[in-house]
Amino acid sequence: MDDRNIHLFPQTAGGSLGLMPVPADQEPGDYKVELLDSNNAVVAATTVRVIDARFRKQNLVIQQNIAELKPSPGESETSAAFRKNVSEVLYWSDPVDLLVRGCMTSPFGVQRYLNGKPTGISMAVLISGRLPELLYTQSRAGW
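The structure corresponding to this sequence follows.
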């Protein structure tokens, strides 16, 4: 998908494990996934099917002067580059748990509207929490 390479991490019980990110706005359909060796030669290939997740819609009604705010120069490009970055370091382990307890303010994949106009898709789960817990969580996660 989008010529993205994902690192597979050896597991203590044998085998390898990796997560293939699928964007919330990925078109439903069949996609070819290839397992490459260290020389980029195809070792195995398979097809994965992306189905329509039917994400919810969220309309935020806010003041017009707030709705007209724009990102700083380069902010959108930096954010896009970050989302394409693939780490060679394993920062997660099973089971994956929420880092903070709180109220989910925005689920992954929700289509956002500002005053009835589409603005984009949420690519994260946003959770509100108390400041001391958030600071601890960020340090624990290496943010």
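Confidence is low (pLDDT under 50) at residues 134-143.
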